[in-house]
Design brief:
Layout: H1 3-10, E1 12-16, E2 30-33, H2 37-43, E3 49-52, H3 57-66, E4 70-73, H4 81-90, E5 93-97, H5 101-110, E6 114-115
Helix pairs in contact: 3-4
């Protein structure tokens, strides 16, 4: 599913990275949802989408380390300027939605996106 479709589904918007020519065409196949960045480091896959309630620079840095191109922050959190700067420097697309994590994950799963960890 293209990022543009994901954002339409969850009523999200791009905060950082909208100036990229390919941003809407980023392909998302799997989703990681966590507020524990240690779990993201251990269980994520490159190319997946990170759904989190954290709006700190650490979530963007963690995404960059594991090769996650897009971070979606839920619950319409205020995003610190440092987080935006981290996204700009790492090339991670930073998005936000007003919806909660449970609803976002349900919508993405129903739309056919797979979890990164299938136990």
């Amino acid at each position: 599913m293209k990022l543009a479709e994901v954002l339409k589904l969850v009523e999200g918007e791009i905060v950082v990275g909208a100036n990229r020519d390919d941003v809407g065409d980023i392909e998302i196949e799997k989703v990681a949802a966590s507020d524990l960045m240690s779990d993201v480091l251990a269980l994520s896959e490159p190319g997946s989408l990170l759904v989190t309630g954290l709006a700190t620079p650490q979530c963007v840095r963690t995404a960059g380390v594991v090769g996650i191109p897009v971070v979606l922050i839920v619950r319409n959190r205020d995003i610190m300027p440092e987080t935006k700067t981290a996204a700009e420097l790492s090339g991670v697309v930073l998005c936000v939605t007003k919806k909660g994590m449970y609803e976002v994950c349900g919508l993405l799963y129903k739309a056919g996106l797979k979890p990164v960890f299938q136990g």
